[in-house]
Amino acid sequence: MSTTTSGRGRHRRRIRIALPVTAAGAAAAVAAALLTGSADASGEPPLPAVQPVTSAPPAAELERRVATAITADGTAGERPGTSADGSATAGPTAEAMIIGGTTTTLTSAPWMAQLWYGDDRDTQDPSDDVGFFCGGAVVPPTKILTAAHCVAGYDWKNHGSVITGTAQLPSVDDQGNITDLHGGSRSGVRRQWHHPSYSPVTIDGDIAVLTLPYAVDATPIRMTTSGDTASYAAGTSAKVYGWGRISSTHDEMAPTLKTATLPVQSDTTCAAAYGSGFVKGHMVCAGKPATGGDSGTTTACNGDSGGPLVVGGRIIGIVSWGVQDCVEKGAYSVFTKVSAYVGAAYPRLDDTNISGDHRADLWVREAATGTGYSRNSTGTAFAARESWGDRSAADLVLQTDLDRDGYQDLVHRRRGDGDVFWSHYVRSANSWTTQRLADNWATRTRILTPGDVTGDYLPDLLSVDAAGVLWIYPGKGNGSFAARIQAGTGWNQYNSVRGHGDFTGDGRADLIARARSSGDVYLYKGTGKAGTAAFSGRIKVRTWSSTTYNAFDAVGDVTGDGRADFLARTPGGTLYLYKGTGKATSEIFATRISVGTGFGQYDIFG
Questions:
Q1: What is the mean pLDDT of each run of 10 residues along the chain (606 residues)?
Q2: Is 419 a catalytic residue?
Q3: Is 149 an annotated catalytic residue?
Q4: Cβ(451)–Cβ(500) under 8 Å?
Q5: CA 478 to chain centre
Q6: Residues 120, 129, 149, 465: which is the catalytic one?
Q7: Does the annotation mark 377 as catalytic?
């Protein structure tokens, strides 16, 4: 939260302090049905171990980081000397807690995460340690949504520790050693992202995502959608969660998770309280005006930073900033307005790729040999290919992550009988396993894995049957699916239907289709709903005849900028990258960039 200094006059100038943190299938009997978990993968070749186990720090190291965070007693966004990247620091202080709330249980908020950052600077002198605490929420099982001021400028991979699965903070002894995690599980951090527009001065764009090296056993919570206005209506009851300070008079944090119900305030009210410091459209404030003391005040405070503000089971805000000590008379808690940033954050929730970075990679098969290859994205091109062995039995291969474990899977169809298989990496065994998803899908003219179509953050499977009917198979997040739902007809008018991720920046998976007769290319915007309402009316975005391009691919965000991109191959074998712009118009793609020649040798693109 921000802090404020009081002056005598009608207007009080508030100095911002970034909030929280003081340390202390269809039916099986139907022909061509989608199966729900058959292990029959006979005849399927094994996949190579190209995705090694992501290294994770040992438990002792993760606990040491927590201990450093506790003893350092610092604040997110406030760094002594220089930041982890060596730059000068003058960022806002990140302090927050829930004052006036009530203790709650993990059952009411199973998605809550504790984020501990502890960097001892490789010295024996504790005075230069950097350590702090933030809250966060599990969205997909490998992703933590939090505040940018908890992430920007810090090296979470080497100094961070995440604890999930408990409502209690760790118990420590007099030496700072952890004695009890109270049933919680520790995890390291694989990579981090914060919104590129985040400003440590204005605390605008205060949203971030931490990617974990493996899925945690926690029930995820979803973000709200970009079109949500009802949740932000003045007077709406919202709940904030956190372990932050429980009083404005001392720095003691809540040992057990707390929650408080806060009424959402209008932009007018928030701007009147904070002036230009409150950025309309990017921030939301909530709560009743603070009384000037703990008594009668209910607010987020130091230590709650990064925690969620929840309405209707969805995150609408992230604890961001407020006033110093949180209870200055007339003050409100300020949160990042998630609906404004869901389009940018969503691709970070679904950024699984072969090499494990933020850029979507390419999977192809060579026609002459039947050998499959992966090619890692460099952002503007694809690196040298890596062999995946003989894939001649397949006539379709798709890249996806059906179990949301952070490792990319393949869905492939066997040429001989049309059976569809799911090959996925099992981290605990450091090996691949393959199971059959569908029986006799030879007549399916299109099979798609665009991500989450139905709005539940679980990847779905789509297919077009011989009659041109588009079917959605809602994913359950484990490689199995609910009963299929019809989403539309007439889809065999298209000779290409592709999709992987969000092309329009609204946080929903979309499709790109090319008409067989005219070459017109259409965008089908995802709505996050199931059934015939899954996609809005098509929008023409290009005209590309078969003499212009004879193959397409959509693998996600190739450039790493948070927008889904598109790939198109000319008959001469040149592959072009069309960077996504996030616009749902004819300007949906930027000017094409050649990413290489010789792609005519490939007959399957993943």
A1: 30 39 33 50 55 72 89 71 32 47 93 95 85 95 96 96 95 83 94 94 96 92 94 97 78 86 96 95 93 76 90 97 82 94 89 88 97 95 94 96 91 96 87 93 98 92 98 95 97 98 93 98 95 96 97 95 94 98 94 97 96
A2: no
A3: yes
A4: yes
A5: 18
A6: 149
A7: no
